[in-house]
Design a protein that fits this description.
By secondary structure, the protein is of the alpha+beta class. It contains 13 helices and 19 strands.
Length: about 500
């Protein structure tokens, strides 16, 4: 049977459980996602709603980041070397074609990198480079030189985030028809489902999965029920309360951190006392265990332990509602408009219990004297608040964000969040900008210490956000599949890694 959005949650859950329709077509899988992707443009693929469909399936990268080892391996690039502080030379794999028949060569890679840097596109992947500008050029058919306007010592790692696309894709506008070098192509895409089929002309090994159908359901219980009833094969994100079957449900440490980004330049959020109060007003232990499981880890900064630049000396804010209320009263006495409405911007189906966490935080913030409301948006509307330029006249907002850093380096987090012109940044601090740029150009122990200093300043002095939790993920996998989650599951699900038990 076909499940449609218009059906109420309770009726839909019942329909799934009673349908008895098993999705068991040989070689095919059905994957249930928590939300509809905003689009399918590779420029947006660092976002989970898009990356889980296209990354490593339709598009591929020059290098592959191995987060468990903290290393970088070749993929579409065979090897590379640093020519000087500003120049890297990349040697490309031969014998590869794009799915539309175009040649994979230096000219195609140059165009992909220029598309990434194109200011006419709001390209989320560009945020990984901070404010660094790249100028690529073809040396010969299989060699590219990439020149940056400031040193990028981790260029091979960064290239693992750049999806290489066909030179025939639109250059100045986003597209819902991605074309890459990967093992799958888009067979169909609609508001109901997206279907990928295996490209038998793929340059690499032939995957076991011949076709993958993606559908989306916001409710965790419904996604879990679809797997239990064999209506689907895999869902990558269920709530802790639905992960009840040890045979099919797997917990895993992911690389994601949640926060509420503070619009720190708009009153009353421009008052540091209000920003501190926001952090002190939340019962972090109670909310964390109730909504995200007993293993969830409180966050003090936006990178997980183990990432180069994580500062173990920063202590997460503790629950102190009396002090929070006192800070709000002090700010009010000093003229801060604390009665002004503060809007929490959330995203439907963002992550398990994301909506419930907003409700809980709103209640606790209201208790300390703030005027707080919630606005839940679909992904396509939510992203307008993610990237600059932010919506004009938006008023003070707290923006719910889930950040994935599985690269092992804080350079993929701090610049985009905290540089004055960072793509997600709502703060402007010249001293912090100087520290960030120095950290980005450093290597080794110096790089780590500089980023640790940045995170300390962000937490202790600026109070740029409300760090929430380092997340534990829960997936449900049907009995047909031989597949387990890993650190990349939040950003991609490589169909080539899915196998069948029978």
């Amino acid at each position: 049977m076909t499940i449609r959005y218009s059906t109420g949650a309770a009726t839909l859950l019942c329909a799934v459980l009673l349908s008895g329709a098993a999705y068991a077509v040989e070689g095919e899988v059905k994957i249930v996602l928590p939300e509809q992707p905003a689009n399918l443009d590779p420029c947006r693929s660092i976002r989970s709603d898009i990356g889980r469909i296209i990354n490593s399936n339709i598009t591929e990268t020059l290098t592959v980041i191995e987060p468990e080892k903290g290393t970088v391996a070749p993929w579409l690039a065979d090897n590379w070397e640093q020519v000087n502080d500003l120049t890297w030379r990349v040697h490309l794999k031969s014998g590869v074609k794009f799915q539309d028949g175009a040649e994979f060569n230096a000219d195609a890679v140059v165009k992909s990198i220029n598309r990434l840097m194109n200011p006419k596109l709001t390209c989320d992947s560009r945020s990984k480079f901070g404010d660094v500008k790249l100028t690529p050029k073809a040396v010969d058919a299989q060699t590219v030189e990439i020149v940056s306007d400031s040193p990028v010592p981790i260029m091979p790692t960064l290239l693992g985030t750049v999806q290489i696309v066909s030179p025939n894709m639109p250059f100045d506008k986003e597209s819902n028809k991605p074309v890459g070098t990967g093992p799958y192509v888009v067979e169909s895409a609609s508001t109901e489902e997206i279907v990928l089929k295996r490209d038998d002309g793929y340059w690499g090994a032939k995957p076991d999965v011949t076709r993958a159908t993606y559908v989306w359901r916001n409710e965790s219980a419904i996604r879990a029920a679809m797997i239990e009833s064999a209506e689907a094969d895999l869902t990558p994100s269920i709530a802790v309360q639905d992960a009840t079957n040890p045979q099919t449900d797997f917990a895993y440490l992911n690389s994601e951190t949640t926060r509420m980004r503070i619009d720190a330049q708009i009153p009353p959020l421009d008052d540091v006392r209000i920003r501190k109060a926001l952090n002190m007003a939340i019962d972090w232990d109670g909310m964390g265990e109730a909504l995200f499981g007993k293993d969830v880890l409180r966050a003090s900064q936006m990178v997980v332990p183990g990432v180069r630049g994580h500062n173990p000396d920063i202590k997460a804010w503790t629950y102190n509602p009396d002090e929070a209320k006192k800070l709000v009263e002090e700010a009010k006495a000093a003229g801060a408009p604390v009665d002004k409405e503060i809007v929490l911007i959330g995203r439907n189906g963002f992550f398990p219990n994301s909506s419930e966490s907003l409700e809980a935080m709103r209640s606790m913030w209201q208790e300390i004297g703030l005027n707080v409301s919630i606005r839940q948006l679909e992904a396509a509307d939510w992203v307008r608040y993610l990237d600059k330029p932010f919506p004009e006249g938006r008023g003070p907002t707290l923006f719910q964000q889930l950040h994935d850093n599985n690269t092992g380096d804080a350079g993929f987090t701090a610049p985009v969040m905290y540089l004055s012109d960072g793509q997600y940044s709502t703060i402007a601090n010249k001293d912090l900008d100087a520290s960030l740029k120095k950290a980005m150009a450093a290597t080794g122990d110096d790089r780590e210490k500089l980023f640790q200093s940045v995170f300390a300043k962000v937490h202790d002095e600026i109070v740029a956000d409300v760090p929430m939790y380092h997340m534990i993920g829960y997936v449900r996998v049907g009995p047909r599949l031989d597949w387990k989650p890993d650190l990349k599951t939040n950003s991609e699900i490589a169909l080539s890694e899915i196998h069948f038990k029978n």
